[in-house]
Amino acid sequence: MKKGLIVLAFFLLHASDLESRTSPPFVWKTGHWGRCIGDCGSGGVQSRVVWCVHSEGWTTHHSNCEQSDRPECQRSCFKICDWHLELFEWEVSEWSICILVPFAHGEIKPRTSECVTAQHGLQHRTVQCVQKLNRTVVSKEICGYFTPQPSMEQACLIPCPRDCVVSEFSAWSECSKHCGKSIQHRTRFIIAPPLYGGSKCPNLTESRICEVSMSCPHEEEEYSYSLKVGPWSKCRLPHLKELNMVGRTILDFSSDSIERSTFKLEMVENLQHSHKFRSHYSSRAWDIEIGYQTRQVRCTRNDGKNAILSLCMQEAIPLTFRSCIMPKDCQTSGWSSWSSCSKTCYSGDLSPGFRSRRRIIKHEALGAGRECPETEEREACNTDGGEKQLQPCPRYTIPLHFSCFTRVDLQVPLVQ
């Protein structure tokens, strides 16, 4: 047993020593990129310090590191100058629909008990830096050089949740049978659907067993009953008398104000999360309308015939009414003109350039409306590399003072 442990320890020490020999003792380190210097525009150059260090942390001559792994120490950059202020600007989209502030675990739950006049919400919008000439998106650093970036979020108010309102129950129906097991039921109807995250409508039917002590004759057949649930109808608007329950409330906090009855619908849902990010987003908010859907729920006997719903009340009755967002298709603008080709000179390779065109989303899709198509198209241009159509690319010689810096700590011995 002891002999086996000694052999295992020797093997582990040998493996550790072998690993330390095979791992490179020298690695490259890089500093931060410096300021963009050179001519205004895309002809700028950035440099950074690159040095070689031992695995123990001390600096050594760069020849000790693997030259093929050496990081880049220069790159092209966009040199921002004061006159660029006339060429670039911030582009912002319309504010999104006001949504409730998320609570714990990301759930959207209105604080019904605390809500007096309105609930706190948030609105978002997209912000990007573009060229004024062709609306091409560029780095935000360019616009940020001149003016601060506009805010992408702001607080807003959402009307308090409105719970579903139902009528009182009707009187109990007559017992379904004069003997044996018998059921009677009562119903109520929806006066106003729930809005702004209010509580859902309760069951619209109730049933109870009749107290009938008389037993049925043997010749009367007993049936079994089951529920049949149909599909939801299309979303449709409520009747005129219900329209005043639907929409965005204009709030007036003055002392003599009454909550006005001018309503346009707010949607308590973040539409931007349901659509992927679009590079040229300029969507405006719809006036959203809340409708309702219904479906048929019926009770059938085992012989296929319909029966009164109360005979199926032993089961949980599915909802027959729910609110929905009236569908609206996505709307986009027409295509913009094609951009210029990204390849403007011939450099000896056969790689093509690319050009693109864009369209703007005017309105996002709502409900079951048709989803938005792609907002950008790209296609190849100068597919032969530009050998026949383009002029040769100019060649530049970068002066020595633009070359990469090599950091060497002279206070430690260099490894030869």
TrEMBL record:
Gene3D superfamilies linked to this entry: Thrombospondin type-1 (TSP1) repeat (2.20.100.10)
SMART domains reported in the protein's UniProt record: TSP1
Gene Ontology CC, one term: plasma membrane
Residue ranges occupied by any Spondin-like TSP1 domain in the UniProt entry: 164-213, 330-384
Sorted UniProt keywords: Disulfide bond, Glycoprotein, Signal
Signal peptide boundaries: 1-20
BP-aspect Gene Ontology terms: actin cytoskeleton organization
InterPro entries recorded: Spondin/Thrombospondin_T1, TSP1_rpt, TSP1_rpt_sf, TSP1_spondin_dom
Any Pfam family matching the protein: TSP1_spondin
UniProt xrefs under PANTHER family: SPONDIN, SPONDIN-2
Protein name, as recorded: Thrombospondin type-1 domain-containing protein 7B-like
Gene (UniProt): LOC106549337
